[in-house]
TrEMBL record:
<dbReference type="InterPro" id="IPR002347">
    <property type="entry name" value="SDR_fam"/>
</dbReference>
<dbReference type="InterPro" id="IPR036291">
    <property type="entry name" value="NAD(P)-bd_dom_sf"/>
</dbReference>
<protein>
    <recommendedName>
        <fullName>Short-chain dehydrogenase TIC 32, chloroplastic</fullName>
    </recommendedName>
</protein>
<dbReference type="InterPro" id="IPR055280">
    <property type="entry name" value="TIC32"/>
</dbReference>
<dbReference type="Pfam" id="PF00106">
    <property type="entry name" value="adh_short"/>
</dbReference>
Amino acid sequence: MHLCSSLSFTLQVSEMGIFALMTGRPGPSGFGSASTAEQVTEGVDASNLTAIVTGGASGIGFETARVLALRRAHVIIAARNIEAANEAKQAIIKENISARVDVLKLDLCSLKSVRAFVDSFNALDLPLNLLINNAGVMFCSHQLSEDGVEVQFATNHLGHFLLTNLLLDKMKNTARTTGVEGRIVILSSLAHTTPYQEGIRFDKINDRIGYSELKAYGQSKLANLLHSNELSRRLQEEGVNITVNSVHPGLIMTPLMRHSPLLMKTFKLFTFWMWKNVPQGAATTSYVALHPKMKGVTGKYFVDCNEMKPSSHAGDEKLAKKLWDFSNKLIDGASKS
């Protein structure tokens, strides 16, 4: 990331309110950047809910899984590293002996792994109320997934897109039979404001020429937001009792940063006032997933537990529909190869 790109990214927070970010001042929801996942879910009883958290073995995914379990939800940690996921499970149970936590392998960079995960989850014969699409990679050098797709787009968007589609029938059935609203939370990022100029490079998705680690990440996070909006629209048309919202968790130093340590140190130097700790980073996800105020709210974008208007690209319905069709085409192409 060049210095000018870092500054451009930083300037995007101006509309969020620099004072609110620096002080943690609560917004309309009653919460702000300083709120933690435990605070925003205090008093919530999730004992009747089953949740999947992708990337739940570390960072804000782990904190989200821990707090959901603390609120008595049955949590399935979906993770690429099974050893780390089992360690996360034991840490949650050590703190909360009554916690219900299972671990299943999921590599979002592999469509085959996504399908295998769904088969494994269905074999458990559990309901599904909450899907937290949390996992991701960040600022990777150019490389392709085993399915031949640029790795940030493949992991952050395409894997989650397929995962969500494959789990939708289970979520619809759960919502219908229990009468309990289902919720899908998709982690986007403020970085959705810094994709390639055209937003999504549909014709150049895998190109090495012109590749930018920052813009490719922004593209994948824009795709997350577009996916959330289009899925919300489709479910509303069906009259399904499932909400879909996207969130920016904030800037947190987690293992997600491992691909570009020097870049992140430079970035943090210019954005030091924006950074959160992990409990704060998991707050918006946890709020959107569990808080009673979120009942019936769908197709929105949340920052610091408060609704925020995303970029013009993110609000483009035609772009969202085009991405939906493009994603299905990529998946169909991979299944035939």
